[in-house]
Amino acid sequence: MNWSLSFEPLVSWPLLVAVLAPLLLLTLVGLWFRQRGSVFRFAALLALGAALINPVFLDEEREALKSVVAVIVDRSQSQDIGERTKQTDEALAGLQQRLGRFKQFDVRVVEAGKSEAADERTETKLFGALEGAFRDVPPSRIGGAIMITDGEVHDAPAGTPDFNAPLHALITGNDREKDRRIRFENAPRFGLVGKPLDMTYRVIATDNQAGPVNVRVSVNGEQVAVEQATIGQAMPLQVTIPRAGRNIIELAIDPEPGELTDTNNRAIALVDGIRENLRVLLVSGEPHAGERTWRNLLKSDASVDLVHFTILRPPEKQDGTPINELSLIAFPTRELFVEKIKDFDLIIFDRYQHRDVLPILYYDYIAEYVEKGGALLIAAGPEYAGESSIARTPLMAALPAMPTGEVVDKAFYPRLTDLGQRHPVTRGLDGSATDPPRWSRWFRTIGVENPEGQVVMKGADNRPLLLLDRKGEGRVGMLLSDQGWLWARGFEGGGPHVQLYRRIAHWLMKEPELEEERLTAEGRGMMLEVRRQTMSDDPGPAQVITPSGKALIVKLEKSEPGVFLGSIETSEIGLYQVGNGNLTALAHVGPVNAPEFSDVISTENRLKAPAEATGGSVRRLAPSSTLGGLASGVTLPSIVPVRSSGAAAGNDWIGLRTTDDSVLKAVSRVPLFGGFLGLGLLLLAMGSMWYREGR
Predict the structure, then answer these.
(1) From the CA atom positions of the chain, what is the Rg in Å?
(2) CA distance 47 to 688
(3) Which residue has better confidence, 384 or 221?
(4) What pLDDT is attached to residue 346?
(5) DSSP string spanning 552-575?
């Protein structure tokens, strides 16, 4: 029973004071002067005041509240090492059994480290989970927290946690663990293609080893070198970036006997390759309406260094003036086409025809340049069908189609072929989805026969309009019309000339994004996304090998013509190998070199400061005397309820605080001056006063 006295005045306190104060003053004056009946008047005044104040005895029925205890269970990937998962499960079951004996504890079990968010999988954030467990609990009801973890906690506060209760940590693993790992010390995010990139790395061992260690260096899955590193020292590394776009640099060391895990024996760096300015040689055969279309496009690209020459003398003009006396600037044919031809990434002949400017032998050099990996584009006009066509020179070996001599002057809408709808150069061109396309007409097509390579656009009477072909290690493109400038000038609404011309040039220069057959994979959060670019109708599923060696199948579904996509949710952080047909790709899922694996040795140090600041403790679950360093069981401390002012930890026990908080269930009221009792006492007091006054 919880008895208490309460006052429930019948009138307001100001009115009560206004009535009783004068009466009390008169009564006190009477007592001072010892007037007859003053005592009875004082008793009557007290009875009247008590009746007006209305004192009430309250009997409260209360229910004691429970202290809230949080058990935070670390389920991060580092807990999968060795016997840690088994130790965690045994410790959790034992704690639940022991805590279940105490009715004064409300136990909340929270598992952390298996969140869908990638950053929460790569870092062990137990204190964030602890805060969430106590979010709806007042501080007076927090009994304490118990963490079951390997001690590698990445959000541990440096001082006292935000709650005033004991924090206890039970550490999995054992004190005999050893591990060796490798990490990048300096890894730039960008590098020039074909140029060496300076990096540094370090090999770290927990048992203070010394001596050299072999480090395998791989770039995009291919081993390029084996370096020797000294444990504990920062080592220099030079890697040549092979291609534009994403490159994966991987360092790997062999596992050591008895090592805790080999997960951190690899380090990954993602480097975006950037090409130096591409060098393009543009040779215009003669002035024409669209001569500056290619020039303006290439000059507007900051990544292109353009060398442009135009032959200004029309072929029909024969005045006997020597060629070398016609130009303001001498055309350095030998320097461009013999000495420095290999320096160019692309050569464009824009309505060019053979004349005495280039010796016949130089065309053979150009064909050889293409065969050895160069790029050539023929922007053909009527000259290509004439007697002075470059197809009648040794360059014919590099050309994908020979002219028929026919020039078709007929209006038409350039259209994509079936191949063109899937080819990355023409796929999805703005305006190509409708029939007729939402772009202007052209009025000239150059006739060719027996085209080689891929016809991706067609012109008048379904004749080939755009050819793309491979010759040896190089590539050749042929645009069989000189009417593209109509799109640039906005005729009939214009067309996507910038998009088309840029794609043609970059495909010829082997831009990876424009490859017909391409497999790429990318990690987004904990999702692995696979993209297959192909000219076939069905590339089949993709095969995936996880960092732990498991084989998975990812179904690829058609997203658009020539593009198939697939994705799979993953649970492992690391490097994934993806294959489809004869193509392979690498992708890293999760943050690179995640903190979860940077140091996997179980430790008591990170939680020692916050635990001791709250009066808690940190202890290992496995005894240090376990043979071979492997835990055969766990040793749990006893659970002891303690008051807020008492100690919360001992050698073999941990304390959790109980609370004094309670909740009110019911209240019983007993008025002291209520009913006939109060009326009788008041009448008795008033009657006594009247009787004494009457004497």
Answers:
(1) 44
(2) 12
(3) 384
(4) 94
(5) EEE--EEEETTEEEEEEE----EE
pLDDT score of 631: 40
Q: Is the pLDDT of residue 440 over 80?
A: yes
User: pLDDT, tens digit, for every residue of 508-567?
Assistant: 998 888 999 999 999 888 899 999 999 999 999 999 999 888 999 999 999 999 999 999
Q: Report the CATH number of the 180-275 domain.
A: 2.60.40.10
Lowest mean pLDDT of 92-96, 547-551, 685-689, name the range. 685-689
Residue range 568-596: mean pLDDT, rounded: 83
Count of beta carbons in the 10 Å neighbourhood of residue 141: 18
Pairing of strands 557-560, 415-416: unpaired
What is the rounded average pLDDT of the residues 362-384? 93
Report the distance separating Cα 297 and Cα 304, nearest Å: 10
Crossing angle of helices 38-53/13-32, nearest 10°? 170
Rounded to two decimals, what is the model's pTM? 0.69
**From the CB of residue 412, how many other CB atoms can be counted at a distance below 10 Å?**
21
User: Within 13 Å, how many C-alpha atoms sit on residue 352's CB side?
Assistant: 27
Which residue in the block uniquely carries the two structure tokens 């300096």? 186
pLDDT of 117 > 70? The answer is no
Tell me if the bond preceding 436 is cis, omega within 30° of 0: yes
531 touches 520 (CB < 8 A): yes
Residue 387: per-residue pLDDT: 87
First and final C-alpha spacing in the chain: 48
What are the φ and ψ backbone dihedral angles of 21, each rounded to 5 degrees? -60, -50
What tokens does 281 get? 């040689």
**Architecture (CATH level 2) of domain 66-177+602-612+620-653:** 3-Layer(aba) Sandwich (3.40)
List the domain boundaries for the chain. Answer: 2-63+664-694, 66-177+602-612+620-653, 180-275, 278-512, 518-589
Question: What are 58's strand-pairing partners?
Answer: 4, 669
Same CATH topology for 180-275 and 518-589? yes
Q: How remote is the C-alpha of 107 from its chain's centroid?
A: 35
Mean pLDDT of all residues in 380-394: 90
Maximum alpha-carbon separation in the chain: 162
Own/partner contacts of 627-636, CB < 8 Å, gap of 24 or more, are 629/174, 629/176, 629/177, 629/258, 630/82, 630/83, 630/174, 631/82, 631/83, 631/86, 631/87, 631/172, 631/173, 631/174, 633/90, 634/87, 634/90, 634/91, 634/94, 636/91, 636/94, 636/95, 636/98, 636/170
Identify which has the larger pLDDT, 195 or 5. 195
Return the sign of the alpha-carbon dihedral for residues 653, 654, 660, 666: negative
DSSP 534: -
Give residue 302's pLDDT: 80
CATH 3.40.109.10 fits 518-589, yes or no: no
**C-beta separation of 576 from 567 below 8 A:** no
Question: What topology does CATH give the domain 278-512?
Answer: Rossmann fold (3.40.50)
Q: What's the length of the chain?
A: 695
Report d(CA 30, CA 40) in Å as an integer: 11
CB 282 within 8 A of CB 289: no
Share of the chain above pLDDT 90, in %: 37
Q: Tell me the pLDDT of the chain averaged across its residues.
A: 83
Asked if residues 38 and 30 have their Cβ atoms less than 8 Å apart, the reply is yes
Phi/psi of residue 213, each to 5°?
A: -135, 135
Q: What is the DSSP string of 317-369?
A: ------GGGT-SS---HHIIIIISGGG-SEEEEES----TTS-HHHHHHHHHH
Q: Which of 275-289, 536-550, 592-606, 632-646 has the highest mean pLDDT?
A: 536-550
d(CA 514, CA 510) in angstroms, rounded, equals: 7
